[in-house]
# Entry
Amino acid sequence: MIENSKRKIAVVGAGAIGSVLGGLLAHAGEDVTLVARKEHVDAIHQSGLRIEGALGAFTVPVRAAEALDFRPDLVLLSVKTQDVATACEQMKPNARDVPIITLQNGVRSDDIVASFFPKEYILSAVVMFNGQYLKPGQVTYGGGGPLVIGEAFTDNGPRVREIAELLRRAIPTEVSDNIRGAHWTKLLQNNLGNGLEAITGLPVIEVMRDADVRKIGLLSVKESYQVIKKAGFRPGPLPGLIAPVLLLARAPLSVGMWMLSKSGGSVKSVVGSTVQSLRRGRTTEIDYLNGEIVRLGKEIGIETPFNSKVVEMVKEVERSGRFYPPEELVRRFSIRRPRS
# Structure
């Protein structure tokens, strides 16, 4: 259990999501240290952390460091999935026997962390709110859904409820008894639009407005669901979704297209994590999103043409720095535009 009077929270990998969550916890009076890249740390030291967006605009005085150099009571691990192993190696001297909450997209992070730390100390979170890194020392909290947490490898108990209560001081937080299933559902949601945003450079609201691009996203989700189901995994309930993605995955294509057309008007104009990485010149998590379905499909013998093409085109954008217009996306996926 974490004693309130001695609680020290380290946010390791404080980019967009980590800075929003850690900054709001510090704003609520918690003892937080953001572990981040040098330029972000320097800006925070100079002027504090500026948070804009759904809660207005304000500056939070918060500690920041380039490495975890003390023993915390709780670690919020918010690096990208491809950086989890490196972060765990660097954390090992100070984070043994400390609860660690993983905050990554995809489904692999918990197992990676478990190769460095005992499973009983690992909790898992699905992030349903939007955070955007604007520049060093400045982030945006876009609101959206809650943070969903649960024990990664055991049944939920008093610890997860206590930590959820702590996190609610910053972000609406819910507890899931099937956090693994919730991660699979979030993967389906990400595979609907995250990669397509990254290919086109357009926010999700624009992606959803184009019927042909919307169809590509929906076919990617249906393909993803078939692979997950055949592999024996069970997506679980998850609040705060753009659309009920499990219904989209199971419904006839025409019904799914209609559902998406109706939900698009309520989608907020936010910037997804994959396109944020591209705009900052960083490597994306696409291998752990659509790429996870490609990998799993190969293992169980199911072809994944739509998810494979998403991965291929996102990597092209990574290499070239050039986004594709929707028309080129449609051409590359061989999607025919409907007749008028």
Summary: The two ends are 62 Å apart (CA to CA). The beta strands are 9-12, 32-35, 49-53, 58-60, 63-65, 74-77, 100-102, 122-135, 138-151, 173-175. The mean pLDDT is 91. DSSP finds 14 helices and ten strands in the chain.
